[in-house]
Design brief:
This protein is α/β, with parallel strands linked by helices. It contains 12 helices and 9 strands. It is globular, with a radius of gyration of 19 Å. The two termini are about 25 Å apart.
Length: about 300
């Protein structure tokens, strides 16, 4: 069995060495590492080339697409299991690849993703966000869980993920062009096609954000756009329901620690998220039926 690693990069010089060292120090090493670089202005490519197993695919920055770029790199890879990383993750231990690949290879599983914990210097609300989205318990999800979990059934992250090549090709791969959430969309395709998704809490990376109000607005504008555009594929209840659960969870944690200033900033960020999401929804064309139908035509249960 061959294992490929794919890392999209842009000006990753401050972080790429740590990630590549973490990958090459694993108990199970990949057969190749593909760095897809979008015209970095720093030493990302030079640093990456110094590592064994690394191959560089250079693309124009304007051509980067969350779905299309990853799909191109996937088809350029050789792995029976293909792992994706964001450039700024820190792999916490040397068993990450072994653990995540084992989870992806369970019968009926199409893909697996790992647990993300926040950086030590992350704001409290970001640490609680990671705790909400990435619990300590592993789980398997199937289409039978959609009525219970709603849109959360499709939650998946290419920050640290692994795909079985046969399952990926069976459902047609990532859709593109998409401005974000290529991982959620293919997760939905997998579930509708009869596969399972594995969340592997034992495979841990350190990864978090400290977004500004504007960044949260712009990010959630894209999320709202994608969810409305592909509303038929994701038709399992309102995304707002899970959003309310998330806000309550984080606020309860912040208030229990009397972190009033962070509570205030978190509320402002939630307003920015909500406004961006709603504007993105209103801007999206309602033409997701073709994508939804494709998931069924390409599914293994046809």
């Amino acid at each position: 069995m061959k294992i490929s690693v794919i890392i999209p990069t842009l000006n990753a010089a401050p972080v790429i060495v740590s990630l590549l060292n973490g990958i090459l120090n694993q108990t199970v090493k990949p057969d190749e590492i593909i760095v897809v670089d979008s015209e970095s202005n720093d030493e990302t490519v030079l640093l990456s080339q110094a590592y064994p197993l690394t191959r560089i695919i250079a693309i124009k920055r304007a051509d980067f697409d969350h779905g299309g770029t990853r799909d191109m790199a996937f088809h350029a890879s050789i792995g029976d299991v293909v792992l994706f990383f964001s450039q700024d993750v820190i792999i916490r231990d040397d068993c990450y690849i072994e653990t995540l690949v084992q989870a992806a290879l369970h019968d009926g599983v199409a893909c697996a993703f790992g647990r993300q914990i926040a950086r030590k210097d992350a704001p409290l609300y970001e640490k609680y966000t990671r705790a909400f989205n990435y619990p300590e318990q592993s789980n398997l999800r199937s289409a039978n869980d959609i009525p219970r979990l709603g849109i959360k059934a499709f939650f998946f992250s290419d920050v640290c993920s692994a795909y079985r090549r046969d399952a990926y090709l069976a459902v047609g791969g990532f859709d593109y062009p998409v401005p974000t959430n290529e991982d959620m969309l293919i997760a939905a395709k997998f579930l509708h096609a009869g596969y399972q998704i594995a969340y592997c809490a034992e495979a841990v990376v350190v990864h978090s954000h400290n977004y500004s109000l504007r960044q949260e607005f712009e990010r959630n504008y894209k999320i709202g756009f994608v969810i409305r555009k592909y509303q038929r594929l994701l038709d399992c209840g309102s995304a707002n329901t899970d959003g309310v659960r998330y806000v309550r969870f984080v606020l309860r944690k912040l208030l229990s620690g009397v972190a009033l200033l962070q509570c205030f900033k978190f509320c402002l960020l939630c307003v920015a998220k909500f406004c961006g999401f709603k504007l993105g929804e209103s801007a999206a064309p309602k033409n997701g039926d073709e994508f939804f139908d494709k998931a069924y035509r390409s599914g293994r249960n046809d």
